[in-house]
TrEMBL record:
Keywords: Membrane, Oxidoreductase, Transmembrane, Transmembrane helix
Record lineage: Eukaryota, Viridiplantae, Streptophyta, Embryophyta, Tracheophyta
Leader sequence segment: none
Main location per the UniProt record: membrane
Presence of keyword Metal-binding: no
Gene Ontology molecular-function annotations: oxidoreductase activity
Domain Fatty acid desaturase: residue ranges: 142-389
Similarity annotation: Belongs to the fatty acid desaturase type 1 family.
Protein name per its UniProtKB record: Fatty acid desaturase domain-containing protein
Organism from which the protein derives: Anisodus acutangulus
Length: 441
């Protein structure tokens, strides 16, 4: 029996596996307090007595039982109910602490890591063809069909981003110089500097859902929210109705400031920035010269906004849900963050094709070296070996409503607290979304 004496004079006993015999216990049901009479305890050696207590002035021992509520993720029925509430098809059960990334990676077939230059070229042809078709549709469509043409073209140009994304992860081609060239060119229509994005994105993979460290998304900090009263409304709008375009702010703030990069990264960053500025200096005037300012808006700006819609939406759906925590570095577990803290989401097939399966995202976080054209085979393997731990959804309005109206301010116990609880007087945009957004799942 382990023992200690509290400063208050109470003696707290922690039994081992062998029970205490002949002990009279009077349970006070209303208070949860147990009284043990001293003379009823078993006889102890002098050494044990010295351990138990140094003074026998008190002969009543009190111990208060404090129940610990189980996590709702521990119960299959609770996970099912939470999934229905959030619009998620399956919430995975918690991954054990002793599972490592290596354990998971070793279950994947070797063929999913193989680079196929022919399939990589096919993805380029799909994106070039679909983007060209989109520009043709914009040129020919009457004004009332332009939104459909912009939606198609914005989705098609997202395919260019996915190609550059594979190049950045060295999963596009066996020729590494070719990868950097293709990646840089693929990012140019998006005005995205390839190398700065690559450096930031590598840190996102290394520290997914780590507080302060993840470079993709972070919850709002209450201290920061309270410290900028003039910007509180803008933050509410940014994490509410404008969140599907918040990647624009991320693009601007994180990729053009040389101070945000390490000294050994600066030269490559400058080359990428030079390519982007050259495209803007040459490409934009050509578009305006041929089509005017309205043509620049029609052919470039609107598809670019469509791309950012998918960039923001894919990212927040992959990594944002009320049950997925952000953790400090001393509590963070790589396997739990990548397998158990990433969401797979199915989209309509035309989006899957044009975006090269980037939404099949869990295997990509298990190993970024898996080419996009092998992600589905890798996901099937994860389903077979780790299926009960996976978060899986099909895109639906309830899922989006959950993210836009709940996942706001960081809280260690709840993960997120919505703005309408933190600052109800400024949360009208969130209240509006709750009223007008469909709740279909």
């Amino acid at each position: 029996m382990a023992c200690s004496v509290a400063d208050s004079g109470f003696l707290f006993l922690v039994p081992k596996t062998r029970p205490i015999h002949s002990t009279r216990i009077n349970q006070l049901a209303s208070s949860g307090t147990y009284c043990l009479k001293w003379e009823s305890l078993p006889q102890l050696s002098s050494k044990q007595k010295r351990c138990l207590i140094s003074s026998r002035k008190r002969n009543v021992i009190q111990a208060v039982a404090v129940p610990i509520a189980p996590s709702p993720l521990d119960s299959a029925e609770d996970r099912k109910q939470l999934g229905e509430k959030y619009g998620i098809r399956q919430i995975g059960e918690p991954l054990p602490d002793n599972v490592t990334m290596r354990d998971i990676t070793e279950t994947l077939p070797k063929k999913v890591f193989e680079i196929d230059d022919g399939r990589a070229l096919k993805s380029v042809l799909i994106s070039v063809t679909s983007y060209t078709l989109g520009l043709f549709m914009i040129a020919k469509a009457p004004w009332y069909l332009l939104p459909l043409a912009w939606a198609w073209t914005g989705t098609a140009v997202t395919g260019f981003f996915v190609i550059g994304h594979d190049c950045a992860h060295k999963s596009f081609s066996k020729n590494k110089l070719l990868e950097d060239i293709v990646g840089t060119l693929a990012f140019l229509p998006l005005i995205y500097p390839y190398e700065p994005w690559r450096f930031k994105h590598d840190r996102h993979h290394a520290k997914t859902n780590m507080l302060h460290e993840d470079t993709a998304w972070q919850p709002v900090w209450k201290e920061e929210f309270d410290s900028v009263p003039a910007l509180r409304k803008a933050i509410v709008y940014g994490y509410g109705p404008f969140r599907p375009w918040m990647s624009i702010a991320h693009w601007w703030l994180c990729h053009f400031n040389l101070k945000k990069f390490r000294p050994n990264e600066i030269n490559r960053v400058k080359i990428s920035l030079g390519c982007v500025f050259a495209f803007m200096a040459i490409g934009w005037p050509l578009i305006i010269w041929k089509t005017g300012i309205i043509g620049w808006i029609k052919f470039w700006l609107m598809p670019w906004l469509g791309y950012h819609f998918w960039m923001s939406t894919f990212t927040m759906v992959h990594h944002t849900a009320p049950h997925i925590p952000f953790k400090n570095s001393d509590e963070w577990n790589a396997a739990q963050a990548q397998l158990n803290g990433t969401v797979h989401c199915d989209y309509p097939s035309w989006i899957e094709i044009l975006c090269h399966d980037i939404n099949v995202h869990i295997p990509h976080h298990i190993s970024p070296r898996i080419p996009s054209y092998n992600l589905r085979a890798a996901h099937q393997s994860l389903q077979q070996n780790w299926g009960k731990y996976l978060n899986e959804a099909s895109w639906n309005w309830r899922l989006m409503k959950t993210i836009l109206t709940i996942c706001h301010v960081y809280d260690k116990e709840q993960n997120y607290v919505p703005f309408d609880e933190v600052a109800p007087e400024e949360a009208q945009p969130i209240t509006f979304l709750k009223k007008v957004m469909p709740d279909y799942a």
